[in-house]
Amino acid sequence: MAFDIGLAVLVLGVAVWTLAARDTFAAVIGFVTYGLLLALVWVRLAAPDVALTEAAIGSGVTGGLLLGASSRLRRAEIQAASEKPGATLRIAAVVLCALVSAGLAAIVLLLPEPAPTLAPEAAANLAATGLGNPVTAVLMAYRAIDTLLETVVLLLALVGIWSLAPDGVWGGFPGRRHQADAEGVLTFVAQLLVPIGILVGIYIFWVGSVAPGGEFQGATILAAMWILAMMAGLVDAPPVSRRWLRLLLIAGPAVFFAIGLAGFAIAGAFLAYPVDYAKLLIVTIEIPVTLSIAATLALLVAGPPERAPK
Amino acid sequence: MSDATLYGLCGAVLVGLGLFGLIVNPLPLRKILAFNLIGGGVFLLFGVVARRGAAAGLGGDPIPHALIITGIVVAFAATALAIALLLRLFRETGRATLGSDG
Predict the structure, then answer these.
(1) Is position B101 within any domain?
(2) Whole-prediction pTM value?
(3) In chain B, how many domains are there?
(4) What ipTM does this complex have?
């Protein structure tokens, strides 16, 4: 209990620091710390799958994205820092936010006893999916349609980002070309870490069927390795108009949707699996979905095209 | 007070803190940061509901856990789009604020 109180206070303290820090770069560092501490909270709440996702995506990839943006906006932000709101607005904001927090706290304290739960149903039907991890069973079987739509949402966000490209570089290379010192630390780390990271990413994906892990966590690690290789200048991001890239991005959702439709014929409903082949079909979906998500996440971080295609 | 209640209260305060930063800070990138703080608080509140639903040998209700994982990924996608919009605004106007007067 003492550990939990300390952790909760630390999370709140880092959140305050993230908001109060004068420099945006410092605030982003605070946010990354906040994400990692939240991952610890998730472990304490017996949700290791969420902890992995929070650490990888909520803290890691989001943090990298924010760091890149903060370095580009630094000069403009110094000019804009004087636009502080007036005292009246600040006081009104304090009152509003205190009311929101108090309302939510009251809800937490008044939650119904015994708590409603679907855990027994999730555990009872686990055998029919051939999986050992109930969270993966929810993502890939019980509520597979959420996951299907989520992969589509990621693609829509990427389409939105690509469509922000100026006319002259339409369909070109995303982001800036990164040049790192070939003898430098970044290049060395990238050469050393990328092969190991790819292996870890594949493992985290594969182990997700029986233990904490899964396609999102594994895909994030794979995406991070691609981003690292791009940052170190080992590889350049491909032009977004490349056909193989487009196919890679839609392969996951397309296979997912196709197997979902096949469910009508083989099991009587959309995204239903026959019990004997459930695990096989789930893995058949997960492999292309993992690759597509990894590519999508990396390209979301790379940003809109900034250099004309050759 | 149980651990779940403690973290639930922590989540409630996080939502309030993030909302304050979202309203008060004039810089769009800081607003995006504050919005992600709110997101962390909301996910935590939902995670507390999941933890309270521990049953059948599971440490928590796996359905909210899966929804939270989906939520974290979608929040990332929205953040990436918001940052791309902000950088394009900066490219067009040379400014990093939402104020209308030049």
Answers:
(1) no
(2) 0.91
(3) 1
(4) 0.92
